[in-house]
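Running this now, will post back.
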Amino acid sequence: MIDLITMATAKDEADRDASVALLPVGSFEQHGDYLPLATDTIVACAIAQELARAYPVMVLPPITISCSHEHAAWRGTVSISARTLHQVITDIADSLAASSVHRLVLINGHGGNYVLSHVAQEASVHGPRIAVFPLAHDWQRARSDAGLESSFHEDMHAGEIETSILLAVYPDVIRPGKETADWTADDRPQLLTLGMAAYTKTGVIGRPSLGTKDKGSAVLQSLTTSFQPLLNVMLGS
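Update: finished.
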């Protein structure tokens, strides 16, 4: 999976002369028994690579560990604090600016990275500097465009959409078991306080059995289309 990390040289980037960089932000957290701990990183990188094929942007290597504290009950999950993630992204944005790349889009693969919204808002008080993509409305459109059967709320974790994306880009990383792993937990009122373990025994909340390669490809295509308006904002056009 070497293509998850950019192989561009300094000359490549000089020739590209992009004014917007993409930073995939993933996680290292449980995704049931059949998807890898790196699922969110793979998803974020897959989105970034699709965007780079369609638009003149610079792709950075991913942040692979983020804020996964709600998954702490499962062996293998590793997190950093929201403060640390905030600082790392701020440092990256400042470093990019030193080489005349003044716009950064965070390609977020993990829904629990709430701090990214605050990073973007703080950095963009005086004009667009940092943005987050995809947001909820982008995901909702992608679900509709791809014909997903489960709802955004139902398909919270390791379900139809994540399974579909991995089937489209790296099917070899999926272990057997998705066909029988569906788990419904639509009522999750204390999730922020109690974490995932209060609502699922398996780590899954969603319907992975519905995942297909074609749905994953359609999701990525939809997100690529949805990115255009945000890119226009970042470019000031």
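The helical segments are 10-16, 39-54, 82-98, 115-123, 136-146, 160-169, 191-194, 213-235. More later if anyone needs it.
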